[in-house]
Amino acid sequence: MEQVAFRLREAFAARVSDREIGERVLATYHRFDGSKVRDFIPLLVENAVRRELVAGLQATAEPGSAVSADGVSDAVAAGTATAGASTTDASTTDAAADDTAHPDTLVA
């Protein structure tokens, strides 16, 4: 889970505190405590927390701006934002975030 939190901290560094990311990762991770198959839990946790953070940022974003699935605003994607914003690595793609299954429904 440390790697998941690290990737999310990198992606949302300029907009979300490290503490909030850590708390969300742990809370989401614990939703899978009773799961029998544990291989994909890090991916599920990362995608769920990423969606929560993006939704929260979109709700508080300035009118006319948008937040992409990797947590980076359109201005950052265009190269016009301030330094310190970063993107995620190839291991967390939009294709993985496109799954519509909610993690709670996946717990056996």
Please tell me about this protein's structure:
With 108 residues, this protein is mainly alpha-helical. It contains 6 helices and no strands. It has helices spanning 2-12, 18-30, 41-60, 74-77, 94-97, 103-106. The longest helix is centred in the middle third of the chain and has 20 residues, at 41-60. The protein starts with a helix and ends with a helix. Residues 74-108 have low confidence and may be disordered.
Major sheet attributes: none
Number of helices: 6
Shape: elongated
Q: In what range is the share of β-strand residues?
A: under 5%
Distance between the termini: 20 Å
Structural class: mainly alpha
Residue share in helix = 40-55%
Mean pLDDT: 73
Our count of domains comes out at 1
**Rg from C-alpha positions?**
14 Å
Order of helices and strands: HHHHHH
